[in-house]
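Sequence of Short chain dehydrogenase (Streptomyces zhihengii).
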Amino acid sequence: MRILLIGGTGTLGSAVHKALTGRGHEVVTVARGDGDLRYDITDPAQITALYAEAGRVDAVASAAGSVPYRPFAELTPDDFTAAFRGKVLAQIELVRQGLDHVAERGSFTLITGVLARVPVLTGSAASAANGALEAFVRAAAVEIAPRRVNAVSPTVFTESLGRYGSVFPGMRPVPLAEVADAYVRSVEGAQTGQVYEL
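Predicted 3D structure, token representation.
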């Protein structure tokens, strides 16, 4: 398959890239500053340009999304807007515009996270964004068939415990290789409307 991998050079994206290429797929990486193609998916016009340059693909996998972390009392309306723009609207737009560029039986795999179901201090904006995206996946699956859409929803990565472990107290970490396997399951499998919790 020919797969467009958004955020393909980051921590998660690199693991997903390795898993997919290891299974013989052609992976085109997309990122703001590096990668095969350089685009910012928070800008709908850049998503349009991305698809125009990339051409037809069999799947789109997103490993990118940003949200602010602050105590709830310090979060502003702009912070919540940034969370929705950076994680929710960007990925929704990948699907919306991608319908004309992804193979008829192709797929979209989006990234959410554990905060959709387990809150942490300073994570209100992230929880709201992840929950909204998971609801979108279930709803979109009904309407875009035979194309498929799923989400991968991991906890903190084992490899990132040193940097982020304190934000996720008591949560069991997951190795990046297992998260990457969930992307493989979504891309190569037959399910749609699923949220793969890890």
